[in-house]
């Protein structure tokens, strides 16, 4: 079903994110027939170029990032015809009138700021003073949304001066991932799990977002951020919220986001002893974090694991373990909900190595759900127990085409539709920084150095210990 007619302006249209994700994503939606035939996509950036040159650039980006069988030439040509380019100086006066002229008066205008957050305020202001933004317009901003609470508040203030909260779409691309959205369906469209979804039945939750790549190529940004700011404050926090939130009364953007904010606000402060920070050292191929970020004194973490608790009725004393890092053994993102043992064991034979019931939600790769259950070991050996996985891969169950959409594709279409459910509200981002800031301050004050780990490993030993102290075990990475 095509969305309403729209004009989409991408600031930073020649940048990496636009080339890799936003423009290929729009092309997929165009091919799927979701884009109205008169939709306009207007690229804008610092460099001067003609629309024809921009189309060539976008054509090259799509050739690079979209598989050949998914980009028939006639469709690619038709898509490129939807593109224009306007050279705009984000902090000056050049280009704004030209942009105004190209936009249609009664069409939804969406401004996608795929630029440094330092430019959010300047662009928002010019969109408003040049009367380009209308009350129906939408503005989309990328992460990082601030570096701490103070800077996030300043960004919110800058945007809110010219746009209403209902017009602002703060992207966390994890919320656009199919399985992440499925968390809500799993929890709130089934009656099976919800009665067990609490401290009485759940022993603990593990959230892992492991990456196999290091930070080479974006060391400058990363070294100023580290895993806490780059991943935990946003992506892992969103996953935690979806697992821990109360059922919203309606599936509306604000009901969902109200419940997420409550989770963040209920998080207990995490003492330093429950946090393990790691940094990858020189590996076999001689890559070290220091070289990747060109800073031999860096104390920034490329790995973090922590144990936290949500101070509310549902989750009292149920630990949530979060873990994320670069250069780990494999690229795996998953949430494991580990249930408590049955209250009374009637079976005489002890099962060695029993892990217990678990619901494992695989976010990537191979999105799916596994339910670990205990059954009788087949055969004549008496009542012996074993554990099996009831495994469901979304691609197998629903078809590859349905599950292979990229997060950006879905999120951009949600913006055009005006659905804010999968975008972070201003107070949500601020609450997440308010939670993260004291931890960052504590390790900085303590002058803490991260623990070293080998590239290709599961992170520092200390992270394993964090789990062992509670008599628990991390699921293997890969
Ligand atoms: C980004 C982080 O937001 O998410 C990157 O800045 C990280 O450091 C990336 O690699 C991970 O996203 P995905 O979709 O590949 O899991």
Automatic annotation (TrEMBL):
Q: Which family does it belong to?
A: Belongs to the glucose-6-phosphate dehydrogenase family.
Q: In which pathway does it act?
A: Carbohydrate degradation; pentose phosphate pathway; D-ribulose 5-phosphate from D-glucose 6-phosphate (oxidative stage): step 1/3
What is any Pfam family matched here?
G6PD_C
What reaction(s) does this enzyme catalyze? D-glucose 6-phosphate + NADP(+) = 6-phospho-D-glucono-1,5-lactone + NADPH + H(+)
Lineage, top-rank taxon, reads Bacteria
Keyword Oxidoreductase appears in the UniProt entry? yes
Keyword vocabulary terms for this entry:
Carbohydrate metabolism, Glucose metabolism, NADP, Oxidoreductase
* List of residues binding NADP(+): 12-19, 46, 143
- According to its UniProt entry, this protein's organism is Shimia marina
SUPFAM superfamilies, per the entry: Glyceraldehyde-3-phosphate dehydrogenase-like, C-terminal domain (SSF55347), NAD(P)-binding Rossmann-fold domains (SSF51735)
The name on file for this protein is Glucose-6-phosphate 1-dehydrogenase
Give a yes or no for keyword 4Fe-4S in this entry.
no
- The enzyme's main class, written as a single word, is oxidoreductase
Query: What EC designation does it have?
Result: 1.1.1.49
User: Start and end of every Glucose-6-phosphate dehydrogenase NAD-binding domain?
Assistant: 9-182
Q: Which GO terms describe its biological process?
A: glucose metabolic process; pentose-phosphate shunt, oxidative branch
The protein's matches in PANTHER family, at most eight in alphabetical order, are given as:
GLUCOSE-6-PHOSPHATE 1-DEHYDROGENASE (PTHR23429:SF0), GLUCOSE-6-PHOSPHATE 1-DEHYDROGENASE G6PD (PTHR23429)
Kindly list the GO molecular function terms attached to this UniProt entry. Answer: glucose-6-phosphate dehydrogenase activity; NADP binding
General function of this protein:
Catalyzes the oxidation of glucose 6-phosphate to 6-phosphogluconolactone.
GO cellular component annotations, sorted alphabetically? Answer: cytosol
Q: Which InterPro entries match?
A: G6P_DH, G6P_DH_AS, G6P_DH_C, G6P_DH_NAD-bd, NAD(P)-bd_dom_sf
């Amino acid at each position: 079903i095509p969305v309403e007619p729209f004009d989409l302006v991408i600031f930073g249209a020649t940048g990496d994110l636009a080339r890799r994700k936003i423009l290929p994503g729009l092309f997929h939606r165009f091919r799927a027939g979701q884009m109205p035939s008169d939709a306009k996509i207007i690229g804008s950036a610092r460099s001067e170029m003609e629309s024809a040159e921009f189309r060539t650039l976008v054509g090259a980006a799509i050739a690079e990032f979209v598989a050949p069988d998914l980009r028939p030439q006639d469709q690619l040509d038709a898509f490129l015809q939807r593109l224009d380019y306007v050279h705009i100086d984000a902090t000056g006066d050049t280009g704004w009138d030209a942009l105004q002229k190209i936009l249609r008066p009664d069409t939804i205008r969406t401004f996608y700021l795929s630029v440094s957050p330092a430019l959010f305020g300047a662009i928002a202001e010019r969109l408003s003073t040049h009367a380009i933004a209308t009350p129906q317009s939408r503005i989309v901003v990328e992460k990082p949304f601030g570096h701490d609470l103070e800077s996030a508040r300043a960004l919110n203030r800058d945007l809110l001066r010219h746009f209403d909260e209902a017009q602002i779409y703060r992207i966390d691309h994890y919320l656009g991932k199919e399985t992440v959205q499925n968390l809500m369906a799993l929890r709130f469209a089934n009656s099976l799990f919800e009665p067990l979804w609490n401290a009485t039945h759940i022993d603990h939750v593990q959230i892992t977002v492991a990456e196999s790549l290091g930070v080479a190529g974006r060391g400058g940004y990363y070294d100023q951020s580290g895993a806490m700011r780059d991943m935990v404050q946003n992506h892992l926090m969103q996953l935690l919220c979806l697992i821990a939130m109360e059922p919203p009364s309606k599936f509306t953007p604000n009901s969902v986001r109200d419940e997420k904010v409550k989770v963040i606000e209920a998080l207990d402060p995490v003492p330093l002893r429950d946090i393990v920070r790691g940094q990858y050292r020189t590996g076999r191929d001689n890559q070290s974090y220091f070289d990747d970020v060109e800073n031999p004194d860096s104390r920034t973490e490329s790995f973090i694991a922590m144990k936290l608790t949500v101070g509310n009725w549902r989750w009292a004393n149920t630990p949530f373990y979060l873990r994320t890092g670069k250069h780990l053994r494999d690229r795996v993102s998953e949430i494991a909900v580990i249930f408590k043992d049955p209250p009374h064991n009637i079976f005489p034979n002890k099962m060695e190595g029993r892990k217990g019931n678990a619901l494992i939600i695989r976010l990537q790769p191979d999105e799916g759900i596994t339910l670990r259950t205990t059954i009788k070991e087949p055969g004549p050996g008496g009542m012996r127990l074993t554990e099996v996985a009831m495994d469901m891969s979304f691609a197998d169950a629903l078809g590859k085409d349905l599950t292979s959409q990229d997060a950006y594709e879905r999120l951009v279409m949600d913006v055009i539709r005006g659905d804010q459910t999968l975008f972070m509200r201003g107070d949500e981002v601020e609450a997440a920084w308010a939670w993260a800031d004291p931890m960052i301050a504590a390790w900085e004050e303590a002058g803490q150095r991260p623990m070293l780990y080998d590239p290709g490993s599961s992170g520092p030993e200390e992270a394993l210990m964090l789990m062992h102290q509670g008599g628990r075990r991390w699921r293997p990475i890969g």
